[in-house]
Each structure stands twice: as C-alpha cells, then as structure tokens.
Description:
The protein is α+β, with helices and mostly antiparallel strands and about 110 residues long. Helices cover about 30% and strands about 30% of the residues. It has a 4-stranded antiparallel β-sheet, with helices on one face.
Amino acid sequence: xxxNKTSYPIHISNLKKTxxxxxxxxxxxxxxxxLEIVPGEVFGFxxxxxxxxxxxxxILMGLIRPSGGDASIFGTPVSHSEARRRRDLVVKYxxxxxxxxxxxxxxxxx
Length: 110
C-alpha cells in the first residue's frame, strides 16, 4: 500500500542547511537529506560527528530554518504554526509520561 506525503509522521525531501562558518566560509551541515518514517516505525538516528543529526532535529523542531528542501510532520510543513502545535503536544505528552514513570519508579516502598 502506497502512502501519500501526509501519511508519514516525518517526511523529509532534499533537506539542506548551510551555515556561515569561521572566516565567512560556507559549511554544509545537510546536503540533500531525504527520508520517510512510516507510522509505527521505530527509527534510530545514528551517524558520526558532523553528519547533521542535530541540525535535522533542530529543523524538525522549528528551532532553525532549512536552506532548502522540505520537511513535514504529518503532512504539515515544519515552518507552519500547526506543526509547532503538534510538536508541543508531543513534548508535553512525553514530559508527562516521563514524570509519571519517574514517580512510579521513585515511589517509596511501603
């Protein structure tokens, strides 16, 4: 079954990020990154230092803007306010879930 772009929790196509580094030299942090994470998939983001892992996550979180390409969360471009709202809901859920897990694990034994 083929999925359309809006079916993917994360869809990245030809993502690019260029920074101005030391002495004004251009540095490519991302070059044409494309990936699709399907619903229910567990995805590990591994790579050597300088591979662009943190840059990609920052773009997905809306902390920085890409220099080119597209990134979307459930079909909503990461630059759109709806994507930010979805990210906030996920983070709040994760924080609440983690807090409940810590409380359960740290509860005193009767």
